[in-house]
Every structure is written in C-alpha cells, then in structure tokens.
Design goal:
The chain is an alpha/beta fold. Helix content is 43%, strand content 15%. It is built from 17 helices and 13 strands. The strands form 3 sheets. Strands 2-8-7-6-5-3-4 form a 7-stranded mixed sheet, sandwiched between helices. The chain has a 4-stranded antiparallel sheet with strand order 9-10-13-12, with helices on one face. It has a two-stranded parallel sheet with strand order 1-11. Strand 5, helix 10 and strand 6 form a beta-alpha-beta unit. The longest helix is centred in the last third of the chain and has 19 residues. The radius of gyration is 23 Å and the shape is globular. The N terminus is likely disordered. Pyridoxal-5'-phosphate binds next to helix 6.
C-alpha cells in the first residue's frame, strides 16, 4: 500500500476514489477510503492524539478550521524574518481596513481577546495611567450593559478588564440602565433572536448617550459581507474569530471599528508590557496568516462553497438512505445558527437498538475518528469543515454502524 506523504496527496486520492467508486465498491467492511483516512496526521498520532474528520462545525475545541495552503505559505514566509512588530500590526491593520472599506482594524489573538481589547479601549479611552491600572477600575467608567439573554462564557473576556456586567431585558430597561459609569454596550450577534432587544435598539441607545456599542460576531462568517456590514449598520466595534469561518490561524482574530476606539485598543495591546493585552500576543506568522485569510475570503466564490457543501450533505444522505427507518434532512439552521447546509440523520432508536449517543460515540471511537453533533432530534452534520471525499467516508462509516446495529437488532 502506497503511503500518502501529505494530507493534500491523501485528499486528491480520496477525491479520485470517491469519483471512481460506486456504493458497491465502497461497501461497509471494505472501507478503503476510511483506511486511507486513518493514515493521516502522523505527528498527532505519535503523541497518542487521533486527528478527526470534522462534520461537527467550527468549534474552537476541535481547532476551529484548517488553514488553506495559501495561508500556510504566508505563515511560513513570515516565519523566516525579523520585523518590527508594531509596524507590522499597523500595516496589516491598514491593509485590512482598505480591503474591507471600514474605518480601522486590528489583528488580535482571537475573538475573545478582541472582546477584552474592545472593553479595555472603552474603559481607558487610551489614558496611559488607566491602561496600566486595569483591571483595577477605581474612578473609571466600569459598567458594561448586556441583554440578559446574551450572557455567555465569553463575556468573561470583558469582565477580565474589571468591569461589572449590567443585565437588561427590554429597551426601556436598557435606557434606564445607562448612566455616567457605562463604558460600553455589549451585543452578541448570534443571540439577537433570543431577547426583546434588537440591534437597532442597541445602536440607537449607544448613539443617544454617546456610548460605544460592541458586537461579538465571532462565528458570523459566512456571509462574507458581515466583515463590513455589521459596522456599516452602526455598531462601533465588531469582532470575528480568525480561526472559524475565515479559515485563518486559530490563534488570531479581528477587531474592526471606529478609528479612535481601535487606537485605544492598540494602547491596551501587546507588545506593550504593562497592558491587559500583553498576554494575548499575536506572532508575525499569525498576523500575516490572517491577512492572507481575509484576502482569500474576500475573493472567494461563496456561491460555489454553498453548492459544494449542499452536495456533501446530499451525498451523505444518499449513502445512508437504505438503512431501515432512516430519515434525513438537509437544512440551513434558522436564527442563531450558521447559514450553511447541515444534515440531520434520525432513525428509530428502538428498532435499530442503537441510540443517537451510542452512534455518536461509535463515530468518535472508530477509525477514522469522526465528529458530528449529537442532539435529541438526531445526529447533526455540518458541511463547512469537510474536505472533498471526506463526506463519502462519513456516510459509509455512519451506514456501517447503523447497518451493523440493524443486523444485531
Ligand atoms: C468562538 C467564539 C468566541 C471566541 O472566539 P476565539 O476566536 O476562539 O477567541 C467568542 N464569542 C463567540 C460568540 C464565539 O462563537
């Protein structure tokens, strides 16, 4: 058996296998593709960590996304030279600013670090004494207002600055909560549908009281237009993960927004040692990698992506189609979900003697390791992080597990 040197070769081969094969030649028990997939990620395997096929989505705990070759090359090229870091931060910020047609942009260590920098910008307003003193916010504006339904683990990144989060549930409560201590209004894009406060209430309140309004849109790509549209709507700052939809380095992110605010974020940022952002250092490799990722993402054929992703999900559905009691549905999640094709797979758990959780675990434990989402209404597969060919492996492996259960039942 020929060994596949690079994952790219492996993927080309899988694609060829996939195109040339019919269901017949990729029978369960003859998982040729699965065997090949088992050979990749040797450096991880040497540590006893098995890499995985990601049909779950852009989860930070699964390392977000895989950078495209152009980004990999940009990072390798960047790694060869010394460069003044502050000059690089500024130049890349400007380049991204121009590309997106926004006021200002900064490359951070991730969306969570963008949240900290944005909050620090609003609390300190760039005052050097305040920059040095936080998270001791004595004598500073140190309240951040959030819709109660937007509270989440990531608001810890704002609390790290020393602020208190004030929760509100209605536009009236929002208006009443604003006072001379309010530093920032904090909105979480994906939770907009959850509460009574929408983006217009939030933006308008910020404008009325001259308080910066921040939007955490970490995972809101696609659509690509969000990169500039969210600040275009009136938010003063917005953040994105570099390592989710953008397919940049996982340890990178963007903070986009008003020039004065981004300037104050810089004041709180590394490489300056006496700042809250010092521990959120972004290396030249990540900075150049993210720049390339934004460039590619901006030019990408997003319609083609959607077609390809839908094709992946349809193919999995087709492969598992002959399993007794199976039901499949290709769908795009509504509000609060990502606008990409997913596949829901359900079956009669009693009839097959196999629960969704057991199947989920079998997918994880098998070779190749496969990650999906385990929910009460079935297994949910995301198309976004699949490479061409992998959808066949996912389909065949799922079919194998289900048919095995059906035979024993
Ligand atoms: C992923 C995520 C973050 C954190 O993003 P990182 O780039 O990993 O720091 C913050 N907020 C939301 C809503 C997210 O989905």
């Amino acid at each position: 058996m020929k060994r596949f040197g690079s994952s790219w070769e492996r993927r080309k081969f899988l694609l060829a296998v996939g195109l040339a094969s019919t269901l017949g030649s990729l029978r369960p028990g003859n998982l040729y593709g699965a065997y090949l997939a088992g050979r990749h990620g040797e450096s991880y395997r040497a540590l006893g960590v098995r890499p995985l096929i990601n049909a779950a989505g852009t989860y930070t705990t699964l390392t977000g996304s895989v950078i495209p070759p152009e980004v990999r090359e940009a990072m390798a090229e960047a790694s060869r030279y010394f460069v003044p870091l502050i000059e690089l931060q500024r130049a890349v910020g400007e380049q991204i600013t121009k590309m997106l047609g926004v006021e200002a942009a900064l490359v951070s260590a991730g969306a969570a670090s963008s949240i900290t920098l944005a909050t620090a910008a609003c609390v300190t307003r760039g005052d050097p004494g305040k920059v040095r003193r936080i998270p001791d916010t004595t004598g500073m504006k140190d309240e951040v207002i959030m819709p109660k339904s937007h509270r989440m683990g990531f608001d810890h990144a704002a609390r790290a600055v020393g602020v208190k989060i004030v929760e509100v549930e209605t536009p009236e409560e929002l208006e009443k909560a604003i006072n001379e201590k309010t530093a920032m209004l904090f909105f979480v894009h994906i939770f907009e549908h959850r509460g009574k406060i929408n983006r217009n209430h939030f933006i308008a309140a910020g404008k009325r009281h001259n308080i910066p309004v921040f939007n955490d849109a970490a995972a809101e790509l696609p659509p690509m237009t969000n990169l500039s549209a969210i600040v275009g709507e009136g938010f003063d700052m917005v953040c994105f993960s570099g390592g989710k939809g953008l397919r940049g380095p996982q340890a990178s992110g963007l903070l986009i927004g008003r020039k004065d605010l981004i300037e104050w974020a810089h004041a709180n940022n590394n490489p300056h040692s006496d700042t809250i952002g010092r521990g959120m250092k972004v290396g030249k490799e990540e900075i150049m990698g993210l720049l390339k990722a934004v460039e590619i993402y901006h030019k990408r054929d997003h319609e083609y992506d959607q077609k390809q992703w839908r094709g992946f999900m349809k193919r999995v559905a087709k492969i598992v189609g002959d399993v007794p009691s199976i039901g499949t549905e290709v769908y795009v999640p509504g509000p609060g979900g990502h606008p990409i094709p997913y596949l829901r797979v359900k079956w009669d758990q009693r009839k097959l003697g196999l629960s969704y959780s057991e199947c989920y675990k079998a997918l994880q434990d098998g070779e190749p390791r496969i990650e999906v989402n385990n929910t009460e209404s079935g297994l949910e597969l995301a198309s976004y992080n699949l490479f061409p060919g992998e959808e066949r492996i996912v389909g065949m492996r799922l079919r194998e597990i289900l048919l095995d259960a059906a035979r024993k039942a």
